[in-house]
Amino acid sequence: MLERRELHDGWSVTAAAGPVPDGLAGVVIPAAVPGCVHTDLLAEGLIPDPYRGVNESLLAWIGLVDWTYRTTFAWAPDGHDRHDLVFDGVDTVAEISLNGQVLGDVANQHRSYRFPADQALREGDNDLVVRFRAPVPYANAQSLTLGARPRPYPLPYEAIRKSACNFGWDWGIATFTSGLWRPVRLESWSDARLAEVRVTATPDGAPDAGGGTVAVDVRVERAADATEPLSVLVAVNGPGIPADAIPTADAEVQGDTARVTLSLAEVQRWWPAGHGDQPRYVVDVRLAGDGIRDATHRVVGFRTVRWDTTPDAAGTPFTLVVNDRPVFVKGVNWIPDDALPVRVDRARYERRLRQAVEGNLNLIRVWGGGIYESDDFYDLCDELGLLTWQDFLFACAAYPEEEPLRSEVEAEARENIVRLASHPSLVLLTGNNENLWGFEDWGWQRRLDGASWGAHYYYEMFPALIDELAPHVPYTPGSPFSPGGGWDGAAQTGPHPNDEAHGTMHLWEQWNRRDWPTYREHRPRFVAEFGWQGPPTWTTLTESLDDAPLTPESPGMIVHQKAMEGNVKLTDGLLPHFRVPGDMETWHWAMQLNQALAVRTALEHFRSWAPHTMGAVVWQLNDCWPVTSWAAIDGEGRAKPLFHALRAAFAPRVVTIQPRDAGLAAVLGNDTDHDWTGTLRVRRLSMDGSEWDAAELPFHVAARGSLTLVLPAALAVPVDAAAELLVADTGDERGFWFFAEPRDSALPAPHLRLTAEGVDGGTLVTVTADALVRDVTLLVDKVHPDAHTEEGLVTLLPGESVEILVTGAGTLAADALADPRVLRSANQLVVR
What we know:
It is an enzyme of class 3 (hydrolase). Belongs to the glycosyl hydrolase 2 family. The chain has 832 residues and is an alpha+beta fold. Helices cover 18% and strands 32% of the residues. It has five domains: 3-187, Galactose-binding domain-like (Jelly Rolls, Sandwich); 189-300, Sandwich (Immunoglobulin-like), CATH 2.60.40; 329-535 and 598-633, Glycosidases (TIM Barrel, Alpha-Beta Barrel), CATH 3.20.20.80; 653-744, Immunoglobulin-like (Sandwich); 752-829, Immunoglobulins (Immunoglobulin-like), CATH 2.60.40.10. The radius of gyration is 28 Å and the shape is globular.
């Protein structure tokens, strides 16, 4: 049986060359593996926290330094024929040697490496050394060799197979990491091992009944001179399978491959979150010769997936269909959850992904400028029903197609297709982020002057590899992408990649140049990126900065604002709706609220056009450090008001009021398995709650459907726009329409009363409004850094109350929660 021995102990790291500070030259530091130089230096107290204050620039030297990792491990002959050193992740450019013998050179963070070590191993102590080259000068040198390519940032991240955002992004710190960031081990084996295992679970019949088939494709590696017959044994266990009747099947290995298929009489379907349960099955795979030589397993789910792109009268849809059911995608983009990704463990993934489920999300898009996440990430997505959309790791730049990158790209793509394809959550692989769009609109063609830019990867290599290794996984060449588009060797063909009538679209003009109500001018078939900035929670902000005084433009704030003219855009985006507050804490609330209103407005609009529009993927769920950004959850894992906007807009049932050609309309969305029937009561009210007009509209919304009810003109037209609003109620769900922007409205002072009592799970807060109050939100991190509120952005009519559960911090005092710095509303930004 193959034996695996982790080699994670006894490592040290030292600076080998480059601009090393005097106090660190020649210093040998204990090193954690998996880990990186930054975490080792931090553990020894040798560098300040790069996330704090203005420290980022103080630590840029780390990416200019060569680092050497070394360890010693004992070994004795164990009877095995082969011994391989396996590195699951090396960041990024390094020479690996054992006992002075070079095993190989590596230059790709996104793949693993295996080196036969038999000739170098010796009985007793063995010296393993990994010599890293500094990533920044390496990338610069490669850029000269390969030729400069268009990109939005100074450093040539496209010239090195390393996480692009490691060089900094418009929300990210530049860290320039080096290290053994994933496990290292010695594998010892005899005769043969499993070199590649691909498992596909395919259901039969209708979604509510039927069996399924498990197909296992295996490639084996044999030791030199090994001739014994081999077979592959497969067993499947899971829901509905009796412990004493586990189905099995086997097949002989022919050459170096084998295929085993196993039929199950009855299987349970795997469904996305909000659509059903997530039953999973364990597929055990064993390689047998003279005994069991190797074994592994995969956890699978039975479901069908396709994207409907059948042209219609309006263009080309992009509709996800799971188990023959169209699914409205409620998505978020995902970036690495820490700029030092080695610090993200399974528990942290689970916290973040459970937050996603709490936010009524059903899809996570892993963005192409980050990393292929660890197995824990995808396993948790399977468990929680969170669909995954995985970009190949290319973002916002033209990428060379020449060697040595070409072979590295193929190796990383092949490995990760195989690694991810068995996950039931995986519903899309995408060639890149925004590169097809960039080639068309960002001046690349002139600057490239005929040089390669990545088209071969997106239009040829990746689809060919998927067809070979995982034909059941859907693929698109890029995001955004219009179905029907292609590459003829000189130009892209078909519709423009970012055409809103076709496929996926990115909407960034609102944030960059226009105001957020203009989202309503667009009717995309599917929105894969859009967003609005806001600062992190107050606790995260103040704990990470040392500015005195703290202002929107103070030094630390500027270091923690990476977007081009970010603060200018924040101000320009606020002024049409609110005036800019004069104090920092109110400025913070105003920008957070405006972020939430912008995204909520967009999501309600997009959802109101279903099934024409069948999904929206917000930029972004998470942050990788404390920063002003587009995230709903900040770098310390605290939810911003935007999180409540996602949760409300993506709720199973919603009522919104939307402008239509015929006037205002109430749109009811029903993303449940049950029809929704009732009477919608629509009222036009004054700010004091008095009723100007009303109508009752019976409705019936089919399961997973929507309904648009045009409102009577007399009801939908105000007498005094500044002092009136519309309220649409079903009894359980409610939508609002304000005829004037808050700054131009007659919103009264926020007369709120608050009580609090300790309950199981936290503090139950009751907020009562004596006057109309918009977007009541508790910024509970100011009371306790671990507190989290399950409701926010609640609008209350005069005399109404709302109960809000605050978790994570035990029982909190009512007077602290009632502090107007904590108990926030839009009214505070209007009344002067």
